[in-house]
Amino acid sequence: MNAPQLLTPAQDIPDTLARILADKYEEVRERSAATPLAEMERAARHAPKPRDFVRALCNAVGEGRVGLIAEIKRASPSGGLIRDPFEPAALAEAYCAGEATCLSVLTDAPYFQGTPEHLKAARAACDLPILRKDFMVHPWQVHEARAMGADCILLILAALTDAQAGELEDVARSLDMAVLAEVHDRAELDRALGLETRLIGVNNRNLRTLRTDLATAEELVPLIPADRIPVAESGLRTPEDVRRMAAAGSRCILVGEHLLRQPDVAEASRQLVHAL
Q1: Cβ count near 207 (within 10 Å)
Q2: Residues designated catalytic
Q3: CA nearest to 201, candidates 6, 57, 9
Q4: Closest among 87, 65, 95, 89 to 265, alpha carbons compared
């Protein structure tokens, strides 16, 4: 595997993200040395057929529901430990009962206490399409995502050059996986629209301060062309928040921390799904 290179300072990566990426590059170097790319490619080819992530969201919206991507994560840099005890399979079942459309599962260990086993457990527990939520920087990780059962990957435009994002998307498409391209500002949105994917995630969280502001999605979602599917991410807690995002043009949302902190995860999910 060619050693991934950190982006140049001209990319102006926020300090928190730069630190995470430095750790991620080292992690990928170590893990790909233990499991070579050719071996991971074979594992990906033998994985169960991908579930259609995009179609699931389109069907939900077409039926008048919110396309909810419900997240499974134990912790986060901004929220600390979110749920304990943490049972990915039970959470997947609860989200399914709560009419979530898709799942998002964190697999990053240092910052989110995630593992590939969390995704595997969630996939075995329900039939919803699953996004692997991680910091994707190398094709090896895309094959790994498919091998563990992921149906979609996240590409964070703030963490990638255009060439990197295009390469990772090409690998995902070759594996019949969906791609969620995540943006935080107008410049990143313009770059994301250069990709093939229809899924454009607008993250309301500021990567410098880690604070959330729904006005970010209200500014960017109306700029997304009609042939793309906007997904509002971060800071969504109430049905009113969901309606606010829908008014901006996003009927698909990704919600994690709020749902995970609720005693009745299924009911909390249902409230967001039927907010409109």
Answers
A1: 18
A2: 71, 73, 133, 182, 203, 233-234
A3: 57
A4: 95
Angle at 70 between CA 184 and CA 160, to 5 degrees: 30
Tell whether omega for the bond before 110 is within 30 degrees of 0, i.e. cis: no
Nearest to 259 by CA among 51, 97, 128, 54: 97
Q: What is the pTM of this model?
A: 0.93
At 39-85, the pLDDT tens digits run 999 999 999 999 999 999 999 999 999 999 999 999 988 778 998 88
State whether CATH 1.20.1530.20 applies to domain 14-273. Answer: no
